[in-house]
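Section 5.1 Outputs to date
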Amino acid sequence: MIYLDNAATTRIDDDVLAEMTPFLKENFGNPQSQHSYGRAVANAVTAARDKIAELLSCRSEEIYFVSGGTEAGNTALKGVCAERGKGHLIVSAIEHPALLESAEDMQKHGFEATFLNPDGNGRISPESVAAAIRKDTVFCAVMAANNETGVIQPVEEIGGICRARGVFYYADCVQSACTRALPVEYCDALGFSAHKFYGPKGAGALYVKSGSKISRLISGGRQEHGLRGGTVNTAAVIGLAKAFELACRERESAAAYLSGLRDKFVSRVLSEIDGTHINGGGHILPSHANISFDGCEGENILFYLDLNGIAVSTGSACSAGAVTPSRALMAAGLSESRAKSAVRFTFGKYNNFEEVDKTVEVLKRAVAAIRNK
């Protein structure tokens, strides 16, 4: 099996699993408990929080453990809305549904929302953000890099604009955390998820700048400094910290390796298969290649590759099975037919160049078979 859907999720790293295992068996206490079992686990959770804060160059009390990127985005947007009570939201049209649907939820509660379209390369311009800000704007979300195309967004400039205008800025860093430094100094909040960089599913972190006014999304106990109720998933948190440590350590080498895989793949596809088009331009994550194939449905290519032992995606994993074309690609101005013919190939550290060559050969057969039907 050739797995080229690393933007959806990744295989857990052996070192990460080894770090987690004792907290599934021997050190199984509740970190809120006052006895020795609880204290030992609480100390491990604190160490994990401290490690992530150190890697992000922020304070430990600014790190909150959540279940992943979806919860991080929901908490940031809805938490600001709950704190402010009313106002205007800016959300890019290429955001993950966690942000888009959260904004739509808040519209039902009296908030107004502006959804910003990207340019033809899939990039949100800082100028469009500046133009959209109103006197009552309370929140802005523009992701660090798009999950479908991999297009890297100008978060530093957008963050600077929002800070100067007093607008809370959230950056979804789920896709970029593996190969790019996280822009903590430009954000009021950002989120990332362990399973995108060889950690466990169900574990993520939300950074919230000290002094930011944000209400909790999940009520219950006083866990996570009172922002998120619920018993901490200790093993997952330990895995998150270890996976993030490895990702930060290997960031440069990983980016170089993934670029090599992706660039060879793209070069071969564009030169050996007629009627192919790269979606997204400018700076793109080294792991991503979003390609449209004239005369094909992306779903049909996916099924053909799957039958031949190759896993890819037609877009966001959270939108799998949808019959409508990609919202992100349509927002960038692509035609419906081109958006529907798009396939996302995302590479990870367990892929190799032999798999690239095999995938191209199978892909050539797939496109020819579909076009000749």
